[in-house]
Automatic annotation (TrEMBL):
This is Peroxidase. The keyword Nucleotide-binding does not apply. The gene is PER72. It is found in: Secreted. Belongs to the peroxidase family. Classical plant (class III) peroxidase subfamily. Belongs to the peroxidase family. Ascorbate peroxidase subfamily. One of its GO terms (biological process) is hydrogen peroxide catabolic process. The keyword Cytoplasm does not apply. Substrate binds at residue 174.
Amino acid sequence: MTLITTLFFMVVTVLAIAPHLGPSVVGAHKGGGGGYLYPQFYDHSCPRAQEIVKSVVAQAVAKETRMAASLLRLHFHDCFVKGCDASLLLDSSGTIISEKRSNPNRNSARGFEVLDAVKSALEKECPGTVSCADIIALAARDSTVLAGGPSWEVPLGRRDSRGASLSGSNNDIPAPNNTLPTIITKFKLQGLDLVDLVALSGSHTIGFSRCTSFRQRLYNQTGNGLPDSTLDPSYAAQLRTGCPRSGGDQNIFPLDPASPAHFDNNYFKNIIYSKGLLNSDEVLFSKSLKTMELVKLYAQNNDLFFQQFAISMVKMGNISPLTGEKGEIRKHCRKINTY
Ligand code: HEM
């Protein structure tokens, strides 16, 4: 046999066995259980899964526009705590102390009923098949699209945790008054870099914040009894009318007043005009040249923001998933299975 023929047979053999080595699809990502996430995961086991998620989410967003933002945020709060494993969705019971009680989530995280509705529709269609963690990831993508943002293929195959971490939720999710270095470190711990941080913060182009999350900026930013000097004074005055020195903690304000329900790059433009609502938004512009350049770039170029947002969402969605034999497929997203 000539060398050429030998090489030919080697190539043919590799191609023939490749499908049996695991998913050889574009967009596959290594998971924590030795398995992979890939967009076609439910193509055979639950072919209508993505369609069902989309339809339930679309109904919920049609009923309340804000729901798109709330569902997008749930994916972030899930993935930053023990990976994207739906630990966030567990209610307290038995040994489980719910993450819903943590500082970032209490009186704030919302949209759980919508995910329950998706899960119950999926359990009817294909029982015990689609994980709650994948439902959150798909709902985040569908919400973004419904709000006018970019779309992406969601790698799938995550399994659900059998536990939650209240301390993880308190410590690992950045707080709005964290310094930029702290926020950067919290992203880095999840394998996310500065580009991911700035692009993903662009989620604040939709949704609302409570007064309690930014009050400090209006009255006493640095402990000297003065408002944050980096906040536009007339915008600050306007915010003070609805967010008094004390009381009104739960009053809500759009994160992007320019277009609160529309997913676009106005968030970045607001920041440049000293009208970023949260301190964590503003510091992206004032505390690092690198993040400042990215804010300017996305403010100038919506397409670039959309492209990077999609890439960074897939990256965030790949944080330590449970795959293979790890975890379980919960029957109900609020509780672990009983055997
Ligand atoms: C960079 C660090 C981040 C900080 C400090 C932060 C902080 C916050 C805070 C304080 C709120 C308002 C919560 C309230 O007052 O009830 C909020 C809302 C929101 N966040 Fe973030 N966030 C960050 C990154 C992200 C990321 C990465 C995403 C998504 C990928 C995201 C999506 C959202 C959305 C969509 C809302 C509005 C939710 C609603 O209206 O229900 N945030 N965030």
